[in-house]
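User: Continuing from earlier, I have the next pair ready.

Assistant: Great, send them over.

User: Here they are, in order.

Assistant: Folding the first of the pair now:
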Amino acid sequence: MGEPSAKGLLTSSNSQPAAASFQDPSITSPVPYMTANIFTSESTYKFPVSGSDRHWVRLHFYPTTYNTLNSSNSFFDVTASGGITLLRNFSAYITAQALSQAYLIKEFSLNPSDDGFLSLTFTPSKNYQGSYAFVNGIEIVSMPNIYSQSAILVGSTDQTVDVGTFAFQTMFRVNVGGQYIPPTNDSGLSRTWYDDTPYIFGASIGVTSGAGDKARIEYPNDEAKLIAPDDVYKTARTMGPDSQINLNYNLTWVFQVDANFTYMVRLHMCETQVSKVNQRVFDIFVNNQTAQAAADVIGWASNKFVPIYKDYTTFVSDEAGDVMLWVALHPNQEMKPEFYDSILNGLEIFKLSNSDGNLAGPNPVPSQLMQEAEAGFNKGFQESPSKKAYIIGGAAGLEWPALGLVLR
């Protein structure tokens, strides 16, 4: 989609362009993070979009000083067409500090628009004096409906969830057993896939394997090519060659999430080592409940190098302490497979909107150790220390005077 006029997009008289006062070393390109739009009152962008497609919405934030405005004073809401709340009382400063990130990308998937327009409204919080809203970049990307099939509800024998009717937020997207995949190497949807290592629970991390550059992934149809890129399916994490060791542990990943939401967990699998049914059979657990018993990738895919994915949903309730979502694999013994092992190639976790259209969770709480370190550092320096950025989504944009914007 071509670049529309700026006047036709933004409806606000209380917005101003601003330049970032400092470029964190982790920011390798000035677009879109070194400029921002600042909003001191409710302001709305209105984008013309295809009324029949879902759209990725990626919001880019770099919390720093803009025109003498300190980002620690910025708290705001972001709502989208159809009454969907994306962010509520959001502080990019607190979130970046708690996650040890320099900049953030929030990625959402929204349902088709009824009127051919997608609106994003930024509203400064009324609970903080002098609060303002800001955004550095916006991406609107038309996407195929790759989330149309129903997902199994974990803990229920026959109930499914029609996830395609929900708006949702990408919480995690990892390339299991493989390396970081940038948006330019995705399968056409500009997604970012991260290394799964930080999320593995315990010391039993299994082993990683790769199919090699000459291996060819055999997609069952054209739409399947968009589900995930080749690099996800060519690499995997398994439990290892020792069946006795494998029977005594679970291959487990743990993710911190927001309480009181339903989550969809998408597992990507592709066999590149075994080629027969009942050679590798395993059970899949989500939050300590059986999501799938006797998973056999070859049984599902019918052949080696054919990728498949499975979707599961689970509700994560409010409990004391950190709220975690667990995904675990364990060899299935009942089927007496040739190898007592498990395999996973990729993993995505999405938060589904609740009954009132809300996707917003609370700002994360920085650890006490983090707060003490930040306080000690800031005694001698104006800017925060360089932080490793861990983000969801792409980082390209058309450079406007105050906003990086992509419409596709």
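And the other member of the pair:
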Amino acid sequence: MTDFEIPGAKPETLLITLTGKDRPGVTSSVFATLALAGVEVLDIEQIVLRRRLILGVLVTAPRDWKKLRDAVEETAASLDMSVDVDRGTGDNKARKGGRSHVTIIGTPLKAAAMGAVAGRIADCGANIDRIERMARYPVTAIDLHVSGADPDMLRSVLAAEAARQGLDIAVQPANLLRRGMRLIVMDVDSTLIQGEVIEMLAAHAGCEPEVARVTESAMRGEIDFEESLRARVALLEGVPESAIGEVYDAIQLAPGARTMVRTLRRLGYRFAIVSGGFSQITDRLAEDLGIHFARANELEIVDGRLTGRIVGAVVDRAGKAAALRQFAAEVGVPEAAVIAIGDGANDLDMLNAAGLGIAYNAKQMVRDAADTAVNVPYLDAIMYLLGISREEIEAADAEAGIVTPSPPV
């Protein structure tokens, strides 16, 4: 027991809050003053907003706490900063209930929308303990550390508010899974890449409109995926094999796709693509991007032309989920550590099988069923849900000699 503790009483503490223009040596000067009093540090927060520093330090209060207060005020004056010293008892109150990370993505993020989200969190009896900016361009992404509410209940409440405010909001339990090595399983058409490969192939057969209509119906879940796929592939009969190479060369990745894969691979993540499309395309994509696993349907080719048939079993809705489980087992991670990303009805089983299912620019029925939805056209925005900031991404790219666009001034 130290000389400032009384048996059975809550320990007295001092909350020291320093504000002013940031400069080198501010934090070290404050702690040099605190060191002379021999106090213990119980908590600390420091942020810098537009070169203005806010430093909060919670310390044990010595017997002669007024002497320490005077010394801290003298130090602050020498730094041309303001300081407030508040005497009280105890540490930060431990809040009952779960802890969550609430990630908010807006383009832009309006003050009214942020206020509405904060209001719903308060309505749940929860508290925002910490706020961090993950990105300010091309989207604004904010991560809230929230305590005092069950994550599932919070997710339900904030999903409704996100729809009202036109935001993307993800709620994840605050646990070690967010920091561990994970497996990311992605759909391909309209997720990893822009557009649908089968429609691009159909353009070579002169039946693109018909194929597009069936594709849309299948993605909305109106017709059986396998039935629709076989019907669409039948229309490709006679298309030369060379068309596959032409389609591959014309593919455009989703904005941010390379950045996401490159960055997360550096952190030890594993990637898989699981597609109702075709292995002749997905295998090349996997090789190009450095993706570890790929699963898709195989087009039958005879004498240099498509036969209009598929070789083997169809990778459908159930097949995608089965592939996810197989890849997770091969990597050695639980399904709770898998992140699945998709946009169509045939992705639903895969999204439900994952620990975090993300509907990416998806149909409404998929957004309603997924854990969260990302509706901005940047695939790398998903990294903000994992606690990785834009600044960290750009710093890693700079070390590797990769030039990234400058933010708007």
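Worth noting for the second one:
The first strand starts at residue 12 and ends at 21. The chain is about 40% helix and 25% strand.
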